[in-house]
Amino acid sequence: MRRAGWFVLGMVFAGGSALAGDALATGEYNARLADCGACHTKVGGTPFAGGLGIDTPFGTLTSTNITPDKDTGIGGWSDDTFVRAVTDGIGHDGKYLYPAMPFPSYTKMTRDDVLSIKAYLFSLAPVHAPSVPSGLAFPFNIRMSMIGWRLLFFSPGVYRPDPARSAEWNRGAYIVEGPGHCGACHSPRNIFGSTDASQSLGGGSVGRWLAPNISADPRWGIGDWTAGRIATFLKTGVEKTKGVAFGPMAEVVHDSLRYISDADLRAVAVFLKSAPERTQGATGAVATAAALAQGQTLYMANCAKCHQKDGTGFAGAVANLSANGSVTSATPDDIIDAVLSGLHGTGTYGTMPSFAGKLTDQDISDIANYVRTGWGNNTPANATPALVANLRVQAAASLKQNP
Ligand code: HEC
Ligand code: HEC
Ligand code: HEC
Q1: In terms of residue numbers, what domain contains 252?
Q2: How far is the CA of 101 from the centre of ligand 1 (A)?
Q3: Would 337 be classed as within a structural domain?
Q4: 257, 265 Cβ separation under 8 angstroms
Protein backbone atom coordinates (compact mmCIF):
# COMPACT_ATOMS: atom_id res chain seq x y z
CA MET A 1 0.00 0.00 0.00
CA ARG A 2 1.16 3.46 -0.84
CA ARG A 3 2.25 5.40 2.22
CA ALA A 4 0.78 8.86 1.95
CA GLY A 5 2.19 12.02 3.40
CA TRP A 6 -0.10 12.17 6.41
CA PHE A 7 1.46 8.99 7.66
CA VAL A 8 4.78 10.78 7.65
CA LEU A 9 3.14 13.71 9.45
CA GLY A 10 1.98 11.21 12.07
CA MET A 11 5.55 10.09 12.56
CA VAL A 12 6.63 13.68 13.03
CA PHE A 13 3.95 14.09 15.66
CA ALA A 14 5.17 10.97 17.43
CA GLY A 15 8.60 12.54 17.40
CA GLY A 16 10.08 9.52 15.62
CA SER A 17 11.54 8.56 18.97
CA ALA A 18 11.50 5.16 20.62
CA LEU A 19 11.14 6.61 24.12
CA ALA A 20 8.36 4.88 26.07
CA GLY A 21 6.99 8.22 27.28
CA ASP A 22 6.49 9.44 23.73
CA ALA A 23 4.80 6.21 22.69
CA LEU A 24 2.40 6.50 25.62
CA ALA A 25 1.71 10.13 24.75
CA THR A 26 0.84 9.03 21.20
CA GLY A 27 -1.47 6.35 22.60
CA GLU A 28 -3.17 8.81 24.92
CA TYR A 29 -3.58 11.25 22.03
CA ASN A 30 -5.13 8.57 19.83
CA ALA A 31 -7.44 7.44 22.65
CA ARG A 32 -8.59 11.06 22.93
CA LEU A 33 -9.03 11.36 19.18
CA ALA A 34 -11.12 8.16 19.12
CA ASP A 35 -12.89 9.28 22.32
CA CYS A 36 -12.77 5.76 23.83
CA GLY A 37 -13.23 7.16 27.33
CA ALA A 38 -16.56 8.86 26.54
CA CYS A 39 -18.42 5.56 26.20
CA HIS A 40 -16.23 3.35 28.36
CA THR A 41 -16.66 5.48 31.51
CA LYS A 42 -19.87 5.64 33.50
CA VAL A 43 -21.00 8.92 35.03
CA GLY A 44 -18.80 9.47 38.09
CA GLY A 45 -16.88 6.23 37.39
CA THR A 46 -13.17 5.51 36.88
CA PRO A 47 -12.09 6.32 33.30
CA PHE A 48 -12.23 3.29 30.94
CA ALA A 49 -13.83 0.95 33.54
CA GLY A 50 -17.05 0.79 31.48
CA GLY A 51 -20.62 0.52 32.77
CA LEU A 52 -22.17 3.43 30.83
CA GLY A 53 -25.64 2.68 29.44
CA ILE A 54 -25.86 3.58 25.74
CA ASP A 55 -29.30 3.98 24.21
CA THR A 56 -29.78 2.45 20.78
CA PRO A 57 -33.02 2.17 18.80
CA PHE A 58 -33.11 -1.51 19.86
CA GLY A 59 -32.53 -1.09 23.58
CA THR A 60 -29.76 -0.19 26.00
CA LEU A 61 -26.21 -1.53 25.68
CA THR A 62 -23.64 -1.26 28.42
CA SER A 63 -20.01 -0.47 27.64
CA THR A 64 -17.31 -2.81 28.87
CA ASN A 65 -14.28 -2.43 31.15
CA ILE A 66 -11.18 -1.66 29.04
CA THR A 67 -8.74 -1.14 31.91
CA PRO A 68 -5.95 -3.76 32.12
CA ASP A 69 -7.68 -5.86 34.81
CA LYS A 70 -6.95 -9.53 34.06
CA ASP A 71 -10.37 -10.88 35.13
CA THR A 72 -12.87 -8.23 34.06
CA GLY A 73 -10.92 -5.99 31.66
CA ILE A 74 -8.48 -6.42 28.80
CA GLY A 75 -5.41 -7.30 30.92
CA GLY A 76 -5.00 -10.76 29.40
CA TRP A 77 -5.58 -9.75 25.77
CA SER A 78 -3.04 -10.14 22.95
CA ASP A 79 -2.45 -7.40 20.38
CA ASP A 80 -4.45 -9.34 17.80
CA THR A 81 -7.45 -9.80 20.12
CA PHE A 82 -7.51 -6.07 20.84
CA VAL A 83 -7.14 -5.04 17.18
CA ARG A 84 -9.87 -7.51 16.18
CA ALA A 85 -12.33 -6.07 18.73
CA VAL A 86 -11.64 -2.44 17.83
CA THR A 87 -11.37 -2.69 14.04
CA ASP A 88 -13.41 -5.79 13.26
CA GLY A 89 -16.08 -5.79 15.97
CA ILE A 90 -15.34 -9.29 17.23
CA GLY A 91 -15.03 -9.51 21.01
CA HIS A 92 -12.34 -11.37 22.97
CA ASP A 93 -14.59 -14.45 23.25
CA GLY A 94 -15.48 -14.45 19.54
CA LYS A 95 -18.77 -12.64 20.13
CA TYR A 96 -20.00 -10.22 17.48
CA LEU A 97 -20.12 -6.72 18.92
CA TYR A 98 -23.01 -4.38 18.26
CA PRO A 99 -22.16 -1.29 16.20
CA ALA A 100 -22.90 0.97 19.19
CA MET A 101 -19.17 0.32 19.57
CA PRO A 102 -18.08 2.30 16.48
CA PHE A 103 -15.93 -0.42 14.90
CA PRO A 104 -17.44 0.37 11.46
CA SER A 105 -15.43 3.65 11.72
CA TYR A 106 -12.43 2.32 13.67
CA THR A 107 -11.89 -0.31 10.96
CA LYS A 108 -10.23 2.53 9.02
CA MET A 109 -7.60 3.04 11.75
CA THR A 110 -4.03 1.84 11.20
CA ARG A 111 -2.88 -1.10 13.33
CA ASP A 112 -0.14 1.16 14.77
CA ASP A 113 -2.68 3.71 15.95
CA VAL A 114 -4.88 1.01 17.53
CA LEU A 115 -1.92 -0.62 19.28
CA SER A 116 -0.74 2.75 20.59
CA ILE A 117 -4.11 2.96 22.36
CA LYS A 118 -3.65 -0.54 23.79
CA ALA A 119 -0.21 0.44 25.14
CA TYR A 120 -1.72 3.52 26.76
CA LEU A 121 -4.60 1.56 28.33
CA PHE A 122 -2.12 -1.01 29.68
CA SER A 123 -0.21 1.81 31.43
CA LEU A 124 -3.30 2.62 33.56
CA ALA A 125 -4.27 1.08 36.90
CA PRO A 126 -6.44 -2.05 36.50
CA VAL A 127 -10.01 -1.71 37.80
CA HIS A 128 -12.07 -4.75 38.80
CA ALA A 129 -15.48 -4.09 37.20
CA PRO A 130 -17.47 -7.02 35.76
CA SER A 131 -19.53 -6.16 32.69
CA VAL A 132 -23.29 -5.68 32.91
CA PRO A 133 -25.56 -7.68 30.57
CA SER A 134 -27.27 -5.59 27.90
CA GLY A 135 -31.01 -4.97 27.64
CA LEU A 136 -31.70 -5.32 23.93
CA ALA A 137 -35.08 -6.28 22.49
CA PHE A 138 -35.61 -9.47 20.48
CA PRO A 139 -34.22 -10.19 17.85
CA PHE A 140 -31.37 -7.80 18.53
CA ASN A 141 -30.47 -9.58 21.76
CA ILE A 142 -29.31 -12.46 19.58
CA ARG A 143 -25.72 -11.63 18.78
CA MET A 144 -25.81 -14.02 15.86
CA SER A 145 -28.17 -11.62 14.06
CA MET A 146 -25.04 -9.46 13.73
CA ILE A 147 -23.72 -11.95 11.14
CA GLY A 148 -26.37 -10.85 8.65
CA TRP A 149 -25.88 -7.23 9.63
CA ARG A 150 -22.15 -7.47 9.02
CA LEU A 151 -22.62 -9.09 5.62
CA LEU A 152 -24.98 -6.34 4.53
CA PHE A 153 -23.50 -3.26 6.12
CA PHE A 154 -19.94 -3.70 7.34
CA SER A 155 -17.02 -2.96 5.03
CA PRO A 156 -13.82 -3.72 6.93
CA GLY A 157 -10.50 -2.23 5.90
CA VAL A 158 -7.97 0.43 6.83
CA TYR A 159 -8.28 3.94 5.34
CA ARG A 160 -6.74 4.17 1.88
CA PRO A 161 -5.21 7.59 1.19
CA ASP A 162 -6.31 9.30 -2.03
CA PRO A 163 -3.06 10.03 -3.90
CA ALA A 164 -4.73 12.86 -5.85
CA ARG A 165 -5.33 14.80 -2.62
CA SER A 166 -2.97 16.64 -0.30
CA ALA A 167 -1.45 15.10 2.82
CA GLU A 168 -3.58 17.48 4.91
CA TRP A 169 -6.83 16.41 3.20
CA ASN A 170 -5.97 12.73 3.68
CA ARG A 171 -5.18 13.26 7.35
CA GLY A 172 -8.56 15.02 7.74
CA ALA A 173 -10.42 12.24 5.92
CA TYR A 174 -8.66 9.62 8.07
CA ILE A 175 -9.71 11.40 11.28
CA VAL A 176 -13.33 12.07 10.23
CA GLU A 177 -13.98 8.57 8.86
CA GLY A 178 -11.74 6.63 11.26
CA PRO A 179 -10.85 7.52 14.86
CA GLY A 180 -12.99 10.70 14.99
CA HIS A 181 -16.06 8.62 13.93
CA CYS A 182 -17.94 11.84 13.13
CA GLY A 183 -20.31 9.92 10.84
CA ALA A 184 -21.37 7.62 13.68
CA CYS A 185 -23.47 10.58 14.81
CA HIS A 186 -23.63 12.88 11.78
CA SER A 187 -24.63 10.32 9.11
CA PRO A 188 -28.22 9.09 8.83
CA ARG A 189 -28.89 5.44 9.75
CA ASN A 190 -31.25 2.97 8.14
CA ILE A 191 -33.76 0.91 10.14
CA PHE A 192 -31.02 -1.62 10.88
CA GLY A 193 -28.87 0.99 12.54
CA SER A 194 -26.34 1.17 9.72
CA THR A 195 -25.05 4.54 8.51
CA ASP A 196 -25.93 5.41 4.92
CA ALA A 197 -22.70 6.01 2.94
CA SER A 198 -24.53 7.77 0.11
CA GLN A 199 -25.70 10.39 2.62
CA SER A 200 -22.52 10.50 4.73
CA LEU A 201 -22.36 13.49 7.10
CA GLY A 202 -25.87 14.51 5.93
CA GLY A 203 -27.21 14.57 9.50
CA GLY A 204 -28.16 11.76 11.89
CA SER A 205 -29.78 11.23 15.23
CA VAL A 206 -28.01 10.54 18.51
CA GLY A 207 -30.68 9.39 20.92
CA ARG A 208 -33.03 12.34 21.11
CA TRP A 209 -30.59 14.86 19.59
CA LEU A 210 -30.01 15.70 15.95
CA ALA A 211 -26.37 15.77 14.82
CA PRO A 212 -26.88 18.20 11.95
CA ASN A 213 -25.68 18.01 8.38
CA ILE A 214 -21.93 18.83 8.36
CA SER A 215 -21.38 18.21 4.65
CA ALA A 216 -20.13 21.04 2.43
CA ASP A 217 -23.66 22.05 1.39
CA PRO A 218 -23.88 25.82 2.02
CA ARG A 219 -27.54 25.85 3.17
CA TRP A 220 -28.05 22.61 5.09
CA GLY A 221 -24.41 21.76 5.85
CA ILE A 222 -21.45 23.89 6.92
CA GLY A 223 -20.25 24.92 3.45
CA ASP A 224 -20.70 28.57 4.44
CA TRP A 225 -18.27 28.26 7.40
CA THR A 226 -14.61 29.02 6.70
CA ALA A 227 -12.11 26.26 7.52
CA GLY A 228 -10.79 28.47 10.33
CA ARG A 229 -14.25 28.79 11.89
CA ILE A 230 -14.81 25.04 11.74
CA ALA A 231 -11.45 24.39 13.43
CA THR A 232 -12.20 26.98 16.14
CA PHE A 233 -15.62 25.42 16.83
CA LEU A 234 -14.07 21.96 17.14
CA LYS A 235 -11.27 23.12 19.46
CA THR A 236 -13.27 25.40 21.76
CA GLY A 237 -16.92 24.41 21.22
CA VAL A 238 -17.68 28.00 20.34
CA GLU A 239 -17.99 29.83 17.04
CA LYS A 240 -19.50 33.18 17.95
CA THR A 241 -21.48 33.72 14.77
CA LYS A 242 -22.58 30.11 14.28
CA GLY A 243 -23.33 28.72 17.68
CA VAL A 244 -22.09 26.87 20.71
CA ALA A 245 -21.55 23.12 21.02
CA PHE A 246 -24.24 21.61 23.24
CA GLY A 247 -25.68 18.21 24.12
CA PRO A 248 -23.58 15.31 22.79
CA MET A 249 -21.35 17.66 20.75
CA ALA A 250 -20.35 19.55 23.91
CA GLU A 251 -19.20 16.20 25.32
CA VAL A 252 -17.23 15.40 22.15
CA VAL A 253 -15.41 18.75 22.45
CA HIS A 254 -14.89 18.34 26.19
CA ASP A 255 -13.66 14.74 26.16
CA SER A 256 -11.90 14.64 22.81
CA LEU A 257 -11.52 17.54 20.40
CA ARG A 258 -10.10 20.16 22.76
CA TYR A 259 -7.03 17.92 23.15
CA ILE A 260 -6.49 17.61 19.41
CA SER A 261 -3.68 19.56 17.73
CA ASP A 262 -4.48 22.64 15.66
CA ALA A 263 -2.92 20.94 12.63
CA ASP A 264 -5.23 17.93 12.94
CA LEU A 265 -8.34 20.08 13.43
CA ARG A 266 -7.35 22.19 10.46
CA ALA A 267 -7.03 18.97 8.42
CA VAL A 268 -10.53 17.92 9.53
CA ALA A 269 -11.89 21.32 8.43
CA VAL A 270 -10.14 21.12 5.06
CA PHE A 271 -11.66 17.68 4.46
CA LEU A 272 -15.16 18.74 5.59
CA LYS A 273 -15.09 21.74 3.25
CA SER A 274 -14.73 19.31 0.36
CA ALA A 275 -16.97 16.48 1.58
CA PRO A 276 -19.82 15.66 -0.83
CA GLU A 277 -22.73 18.12 -0.47
CA ARG A 278 -25.84 16.57 1.08
CA THR A 279 -28.82 18.71 0.20
CA GLN A 280 -31.67 16.92 2.00
CA GLY A 281 -33.32 19.75 3.91
CA ALA A 282 -36.36 20.30 6.09
CA THR A 283 -39.84 19.32 4.98
CA GLY A 284 -43.36 19.59 6.32
CA ALA A 285 -44.02 23.09 7.66
CA VAL A 286 -47.18 22.64 9.70
CA ALA A 287 -47.44 25.62 12.07
CA THR A 288 -50.35 28.02 11.51
CA ALA A 289 -49.91 31.81 11.61
CA ALA A 290 -51.77 31.88 14.95
CA ALA A 291 -49.37 29.26 16.42
CA LEU A 292 -46.35 31.27 15.23
CA ALA A 293 -47.75 34.43 16.84
CA GLN A 294 -48.25 32.48 20.08
CA GLY A 295 -44.66 31.20 19.74
CA GLN A 296 -43.42 34.78 19.52
CA THR A 297 -45.33 35.78 22.66
CA LEU A 298 -43.92 32.78 24.58
CA TYR A 299 -40.40 33.47 23.27
CA MET A 300 -40.55 37.09 24.47
CA ALA A 301 -41.74 35.95 27.91
CA ASN A 302 -39.34 33.02 28.42
CA CYS A 303 -36.29 33.40 26.21
CA ALA A 304 -35.74 37.01 25.15
CA LYS A 305 -34.15 38.18 28.40
CA CYS A 306 -31.16 35.98 27.58
CA HIS A 307 -31.30 35.46 23.81
CA GLN A 308 -32.61 39.00 23.15
CA LYS A 309 -35.64 39.97 21.07
CA ASP A 310 -33.74 39.50 17.82
CA GLY A 311 -32.21 36.16 18.85
CA THR A 312 -28.62 37.40 18.73
CA GLY A 313 -27.81 36.59 22.37
CA PHE A 314 -24.59 37.93 23.90
CA ALA A 315 -21.28 36.91 22.31
CA GLY A 316 -19.27 34.90 24.82
CA ALA A 317 -22.23 34.42 27.20
CA VAL A 318 -25.54 33.47 25.52
CA ALA A 319 -25.79 31.59 22.20
CA ASN A 320 -26.90 33.39 19.04
CA LEU A 321 -30.09 31.76 17.73
CA SER A 322 -30.17 33.61 14.40
CA ALA A 323 -28.13 32.04 11.58
CA ASN A 324 -27.25 29.14 13.89
CA GLY A 325 -26.81 25.82 12.05
CA SER A 326 -28.27 23.64 14.76
CA VAL A 327 -31.38 25.87 14.98
CA THR A 328 -31.92 25.96 11.20
CA SER A 329 -31.27 22.23 10.57
CA ALA A 330 -33.60 19.73 8.92
CA THR A 331 -35.51 18.87 12.10
CA PRO A 332 -36.28 20.99 15.19
CA ASP A 333 -35.10 18.33 17.68
CA ASP A 334 -32.13 20.27 19.05
CA ILE A 335 -34.11 23.41 19.94
CA ILE A 336 -36.71 21.24 21.65
CA ASP A 337 -34.08 19.18 23.49
CA ALA A 338 -32.23 22.31 24.63
CA VAL A 339 -35.47 23.77 26.01
CA LEU A 340 -36.50 20.47 27.67
CA SER A 341 -33.20 19.56 29.31
CA GLY A 342 -31.43 22.90 29.69
CA LEU A 343 -27.71 23.20 28.89
CA HIS A 344 -24.57 23.05 31.01
CA GLY A 345 -22.76 25.93 29.31
CA THR A 346 -19.70 25.54 27.10
CA GLY A 347 -16.56 27.66 27.52
CA THR A 348 -17.43 31.13 28.79
CA TYR A 349 -21.13 30.61 27.94
CA GLY A 350 -23.63 30.53 30.77
CA THR A 351 -26.05 27.73 31.65
CA MET A 352 -29.56 27.56 30.30
CA PRO A 353 -32.35 26.37 32.61
CA SER A 354 -34.69 23.47 31.74
CA PHE A 355 -38.23 24.49 30.83
CA ALA A 356 -39.62 20.93 31.02
CA GLY A 357 -41.69 21.70 34.12
CA LYS A 358 -42.83 25.10 32.93
CA LEU A 359 -43.89 24.84 29.28
CA THR A 360 -46.37 22.42 27.66
CA ASP A 361 -45.71 20.38 24.52
CA GLN A 362 -47.76 22.88 22.54
CA ASP A 363 -45.81 25.84 24.03
CA ILE A 364 -42.41 24.35 23.19
CA SER A 365 -43.55 23.42 19.68
CA ASP A 366 -44.78 26.98 19.09
CA ILE A 367 -41.53 28.49 20.40
CA ALA A 368 -39.38 26.15 18.28
CA ASN A 369 -41.34 27.11 15.17
CA TYR A 370 -41.03 30.80 15.97
CA VAL A 371 -37.24 30.46 16.41
CA ARG A 372 -36.95 28.49 13.15
CA THR A 373 -38.77 31.17 11.16
CA GLY A 374 -37.73 34.31 13.08
CA TRP A 375 -34.97 36.83 12.26
CA GLY A 376 -34.37 35.56 8.74
CA ASN A 377 -33.82 31.96 9.91
CA ASN A 378 -36.26 30.99 7.15
CA THR A 379 -36.48 27.28 8.03
CA PRO A 380 -39.71 25.26 7.73
CA ALA A 381 -41.78 25.39 10.92
CA ASN A 382 -42.03 21.62 11.31
CA ALA A 383 -42.09 21.19 15.11
CA THR A 384 -45.23 19.51 16.48
CA PRO A 385 -46.54 18.92 20.01
CA ALA A 386 -46.34 15.16 19.30
CA LEU A 387 -42.61 15.44 18.59
CA VAL A 388 -42.09 17.42 21.81
CA ALA A 389 -44.05 14.78 23.77
CA ASN A 390 -41.86 12.03 22.32
CA LEU A 391 -38.59 13.87 23.06
CA ARG A 392 -39.82 14.68 26.57
CA VAL A 393 -40.19 10.94 27.32
CA GLN A 394 -36.74 10.20 25.84
CA ALA A 395 -35.12 13.03 27.81
CA ALA A 396 -36.61 11.72 31.07
CA ALA A 397 -35.56 8.12 30.28
CA SER A 398 -31.97 9.02 29.45
CA LEU A 399 -31.64 11.08 32.61
CA LYS A 400 -32.79 7.98 34.53
CA GLN A 401 -30.33 5.72 32.67
CA ASN A 402 -27.26 7.89 33.24
CA PRO A 403 -28.20 10.40 35.95
C1 HEC B 1 -19.95 5.37 21.05
C2 HEC B 1 -19.55 4.56 22.20
C3 HEC B 1 -18.23 3.83 22.16
C4 HEC B 1 -16.99 4.33 21.81
C5 HEC B 1 -16.64 5.74 21.35
C6 HEC B 1 -16.05 3.25 22.00
N7 HEC B 1 -16.70 2.13 22.45
FE8 HEC B 1 -15.86 0.30 22.80
N9 HEC B 1 -17.70 -0.48 23.16
C10 HEC B 1 -18.87 0.23 23.24
C11 HEC B 1 -19.96 -0.68 23.58
C12 HEC B 1 -21.42 -0.29 23.76
C13 HEC B 1 -19.40 -1.97 23.67
C14 HEC B 1 -20.15 -3.27 23.96
C15 HEC B 1 -20.65 -3.77 22.62
C16 HEC B 1 -21.42 -5.06 22.71
O17 HEC B 1 -21.76 -5.50 23.83
O18 HEC B 1 -21.65 -5.66 21.64
C19 HEC B 1 -17.97 -1.80 23.40
C20 HEC B 1 -17.06 -2.86 23.37
C21 HEC B 1 -15.68 -2.70 23.30
C22 HEC B 1 -14.71 -3.78 23.37
C23 HEC B 1 -15.05 -5.25 23.39
C24 HEC B 1 -14.97 -5.88 24.72
C25 HEC B 1 -15.18 -7.37 24.68
O26 HEC B 1 -15.81 -7.83 25.60
O27 HEC B 1 -14.71 -8.09 23.80
C28 HEC B 1 -13.45 -3.19 23.33
C29 HEC B 1 -12.11 -3.85 23.41
C30 HEC B 1 -13.65 -1.77 23.17
N31 HEC B 1 -15.01 -1.51 23.14
C32 HEC B 1 -12.63 -0.86 23.08
C33 HEC B 1 -12.81 0.47 22.66
C34 HEC B 1 -11.72 1.36 22.29
C35 HEC B 1 -10.24 1.02 22.37
C36 HEC B 1 -12.31 2.52 21.89
C37 HEC B 1 -11.61 3.73 21.30
C38 HEC B 1 -10.75 3.44 20.15
C39 HEC B 1 -13.75 2.36 22.04
N40 HEC B 1 -14.01 1.11 22.50
C41 HEC B 1 -14.68 3.35 21.77
C42 HEC B 1 -19.02 1.58 23.01
C43 HEC B 1 -18.03 2.45 22.56
C1 HEC C 1 -21.69 11.62 19.90
C2 HEC C 1 -22.22 12.17 18.68
C3 HEC C 1 -21.35 13.13 17.88
C4 HEC C 1 -20.08 12.92 17.40
C5 HEC C 1 -19.19 11.70 17.57
C6 HEC C 1 -19.73 14.11 16.67
N7 HEC C 1 -20.75 15.03 16.72
FE8 HEC C 1 -20.76 16.91 15.90
N9 HEC C 1 -22.60 17.29 16.70
C10 HEC C 1 -23.37 16.37 17.40
C11 HEC C 1 -24.63 16.99 17.78
C12 HEC C 1 -25.76 16.34 18.56
C13 HEC C 1 -24.59 18.32 17.31
C14 HEC C 1 -25.70 19.40 17.48
C15 HEC C 1 -25.45 20.25 18.69
C16 HEC C 1 -24.49 21.39 18.43
O17 HEC C 1 -24.66 22.13 17.45
O18 HEC C 1 -23.52 21.51 19.20
C19 HEC C 1 -23.29 18.48 16.63
C20 HEC C 1 -22.85 19.65 16.02
C21 HEC C 1 -21.70 19.75 15.24
C22 HEC C 1 -21.33 20.92 14.48
C23 HEC C 1 -22.11 22.24 14.41
C24 HEC C 1 -23.04 22.18 13.23
C25 HEC C 1 -23.93 23.38 13.06
O26 HEC C 1 -24.48 23.52 11.96
O27 HEC C 1 -24.10 24.16 14.02
C28 HEC C 1 -20.14 20.63 13.84
C29 HEC C 1 -19.35 21.54 12.90
C30 HEC C 1 -19.78 19.28 14.20
N31 HEC C 1 -20.75 18.77 15.06
C32 HEC C 1 -18.66 18.60 13.73
C33 HEC C 1 -18.28 17.32 14.16
C34 HEC C 1 -17.05 16.65 13.74
C35 HEC C 1 -16.06 17.21 12.75
C36 HEC C 1 -17.01 15.45 14.39
C37 HEC C 1 -15.92 14.39 14.35
C38 HEC C 1 -14.60 14.84 14.74
C39 HEC C 1 -18.22 15.37 15.21
N40 HEC C 1 -18.96 16.51 15.04
C41 HEC C 1 -18.53 14.28 16.01
C42 HEC C 1 -23.01 15.05 17.71
C43 HEC C 1 -21.77 14.46 17.44
C1 HEC D 1 -31.02 32.23 31.60
C2 HEC D 1 -30.69 32.52 30.22
C3 HEC D 1 -31.37 31.69 29.14
C4 HEC D 1 -32.74 31.54 28.93
C5 HEC D 1 -33.89 32.08 29.75
C6 HEC D 1 -32.84 30.73 27.72
N7 HEC D 1 -31.60 30.41 27.25
FE8 HEC D 1 -31.20 29.31 25.59
N9 HEC D 1 -29.21 29.41 25.98
C10 HEC D 1 -28.65 30.12 27.00
C11 HEC D 1 -27.22 29.92 26.99
C12 HEC D 1 -26.23 30.52 27.98
C13 HEC D 1 -26.94 29.05 25.91
C14 HEC D 1 -25.58 28.45 25.50
C15 HEC D 1 -25.34 27.28 26.43
C16 HEC D 1 -24.57 26.15 25.87
O17 HEC D 1 -24.39 26.07 24.67
O18 HEC D 1 -24.19 25.25 26.66
C19 HEC D 1 -28.23 28.75 25.31
C20 HEC D 1 -28.37 27.92 24.21
C21 HEC D 1 -29.57 27.71 23.56
C22 HEC D 1 -29.73 26.89 22.38
C23 HEC D 1 -28.60 26.12 21.67
C24 HEC D 1 -27.96 26.98 20.63
C25 HEC D 1 -26.47 26.87 20.59
O26 HEC D 1 -25.89 26.95 19.51
O27 HEC D 1 -25.86 26.73 21.67
C28 HEC D 1 -31.04 26.95 22.01
C29 HEC D 1 -31.68 26.28 20.80
C30 HEC D 1 -31.71 27.80 22.98
N31 HEC D 1 -30.79 28.23 23.90
C32 HEC D 1 -33.05 28.12 22.95
C33 HEC D 1 -33.72 28.78 23.98
C34 HEC D 1 -35.15 29.00 24.01
C35 HEC D 1 -36.10 28.61 22.89
C36 HEC D 1 -35.44 29.60 25.20
C37 HEC D 1 -36.78 29.93 25.76
C38 HEC D 1 -37.69 28.81 25.96
C39 HEC D 1 -34.17 29.78 25.90
N40 HEC D 1 -33.16 29.28 25.13
C41 HEC D 1 -34.05 30.37 27.15
C42 HEC D 1 -29.31 30.90 27.93
C43 HEC D 1 -30.68 30.98 28.08
Answers
A1: 167-273
A2: 4
A3: yes
A4: yes
